[in-house]
Amino acid sequence: MPPSLLITGAAGYIGSHCVEALIRQASAYGLQGVQLHLLDDLSTGHREFLEKLCALAESHRLPRPVIHEVSLTDRPALEQALKQARPEAVLHFAALISVAESVQQPDRYVRNNVEGSQNLFRAMQKSGCQRLVFSSTAAVYGNPAGAHLPLPESTPVGPVNPYGETKLAMENAIAEAAREWGLHSVIFRYFNAAGASSSGLFGEWHEPETHLIPLLLRAAARGEKLKVFGSDYDTRDGTCVRDYIHVEDLACAHLLGLKALRAFESQGAAAQVFNLGTARGTSVLEVIRAAEAVLKKDLGRGVGYDIHPRRPGDSAVLVADSARAREILGWEPVHSSMENILRTAWEWERR
Ligand SMILES: NC(=O)c1ccc[n+]([C@@H]2O[C@H](COP(=O)([O-])OP(=O)(O)OC[C@H]3O[C@@H](n4cnc5c(N)ncnc54)[C@H](O)[C@@H]3O)[C@@H](O)[C@H]2O)c1
User: Fold this and answer.
1) Rounded to 10 degrees, what is the CA torsion of 18, 20, 26, 29?
2) Which tens digit of pLDDT belongs to each residue from 22-46?
3) Which of 128, 239, 255, 342 is least surrounded by Cβ atoms within 10 Å, i.e. has the fewest?
4) In a domain? residue 308
């Protein structure tokens, strides 16, 4: 029987790029003939992405992916999807992801992210699926003032917003499932995902958009001013510093994580946590200057911005130490120069 994989959140930004990579590189990772099951409630994702993924799979002579338009909060429908898919592993991207929205609606975030994930893990247990790759976030570290930079996975966790709290609760639920029924998992703590597929098929598309790079590119294209939140942080130019990681490097980590899950099994059930970033921090003003260089030819003008007060829940500096992913998974971020991130994101925005 060819393997089957179930991907939650496949109609979203990172999920769609990972499924694209899975389709294009299935043979290289021992997934010939893989049957993909794409599960998404389309609350923030895009049907168009699912359609493109189905067409892409067929053009790579893979079976047409099965679409499950199901919410993680609908337990019976979720259990039915798992029963039908009988996946060898689940890649779990689905979540609500806006920090600002989570501050306004914390209960909705708990219901969707935490309770939804618990439903998923129960459905996996029932269907006999014991392998999981999970999308976590640097937000679990909160504001690690005084911590050693870049941050290793051993940095004490302490989220500073409800979104980060839900992701940490999901990590804890995974650790519990490992103890209780032997779930094997890889937990990836992404730093700032950015950029777009080099194929031009997929890119960052959140509504409303809250991430710096698409907001910056859209403001620049319209000749509007970008809002910069806070210029009095304890950083080299006063603006927040982040570690930007290209979405295609994240996709590659997922393929390696899936492969490694099989090897980890001989070591007993446990959650293996990996930071995914570049160890390079870039401030908001540095991103703006790098964008000006990329956009100069097309726009012939600079990028305007206004300084606004800090936003609640923003950390000053988040930069990853990803040595563990490099050593254990053999992962190497090769697409994440700021120039490549901005160029691919700009090509996507222009489409
Ligand atoms: N974008 C980033 O910079 C970033 C950084 C760190 C971690 N992450 C994590 O990566 C994952 C994917 O993020 P993204 O940027 O692709 O977000 P996204 O909003 O583009 O995608 C999330 C997808 O999940 C789906 N979804 C949400 N709730 C669901 C539910 N209850 N049932 C079924 N589907 C549901 C949405 O419809 C959407 O397609 C999230 O778990 C997020 O926490 C993202």
Assistant:
1) -30
2) 999 999 998 999 999 999 999 999 9
3) 128
4) no
Is pTM beyond 0.70? Reply is yes
Which tokens sit at 19? 């499924």
223 CB-contact burial (10 Å; exposed 0-12 / middle 13-18 / buried 19+): exposed
Residues in contact with 79: Cβ distance below 8 Å, sequence separation at least 6, in sequence order = 122, 123, 126, 127
Q: Tell me, yes or no, whether 285 lies in a domain.
A: no
- How deeply is 96 buried, as exposed, middle or buried, from its count of CB atoms within 10 A (0-12, 13-18, 19+)? middle
Report pLDDT digits (tens) over 111-155: 999 999 999 999 999 999 999 999 999 999 998 877 788 999 999
Q: Is the distance from the beta carbon of residue 233 to the nearest atom of ligand 1 less than 6 Å?
A: no
Q: How far apart are CA 16 and CA 38, in angstroms?
A: 9
Residue with CA closest to ligand 1 atom 35 = 94
Q: Which residue has the tokens 């389309």?
A: 42
Domain count, the chain: 1
Which of 6, 13, 52, 278, when mutated, tests ligand 1's pocket best, judged by the most ligand atoms within 8 Å of its CB? 13
Task: Check if 190 is active-site.
Answer: no
Classify residue 341: in a domain, yes or no: no
> What 8-state DSSP symbol labels residue 252?
H
Is-contact 32 2, C-beta < 8 A?
yes
Among 13, 109, 141, 163, the active-site one is: 163
CATH of residue 97's domain is 3.40.50.720
Q: Which of 23, 351, 37 is nearest to 196 (CA)?
A: 351
Pairing of strands 282-283, 241-242: antiparallel
**Cα separation of 247 and 201, whole Å?**
13
* Span 171-197, average pLDDT: 97
β-pairing verdict for 4-8 and 35-39: parallel
C-beta separation of 28 from 21 below 8 A: no
Is 9 part of any domain?
yes
